[in-house]
Amino acid sequence: MAPIPRNDQDEDSNNYNHHCGLCNGAPSKRCFKQNHVAYCEACGDIFTVKSSKCGGGCLKHPYAKGYNLSYKKIKSKMPADDRTDYDLQLEVEAREQMKADAAKREQLAANEAAKKQQQLTSKQKKKLRLVQKGKWCN
User: Fold this and answer.
1) What confidence tens digit (pLDDT) does each residue in 1-48 have?
2) Domain segments of the chain: what residues?
3) 118: DSSP letter
4) pTM for this entry
5) Rounded Cα distance, 97 and 95, in Å
6) Among 17, 61, 74, 81, which residue is least crowded by beta carbons within 10 Å?
């Protein structure tokens, strides 16, 4: 099954499910090379670069919040590295948010691991301590 490109800001994204918003075909390498669709830098979702409504971008990470600004520049037919102070500030905020999200995911994973360790039987805990000390032999 082909990935679903979406301009997640658009209500009519179902009009081209499984299709490039510009070619009206399944997204291909050509669609990515010509910047019809792109992967979101923050979450990896595919979105239509040239949105017809709401400024565009990924649903979770729209251009207006500082994400995928290089694609916004392509949409506007400007050089991708041409950034205003406002764009740079939005990028900083977006990167900080991505770092905070990553730290949150790490903390959740650590909590899950701790919870799992608490659920071990006493025999399993003893074995785990020996393994951690390097004294366990099969």
Assistant:
1) 444 444 444 444 433 345 677 788 888 888 888 888 888 888 888 888
2) 11-75, 92-133
3) H
4) 0.50
5) 5
6) 81
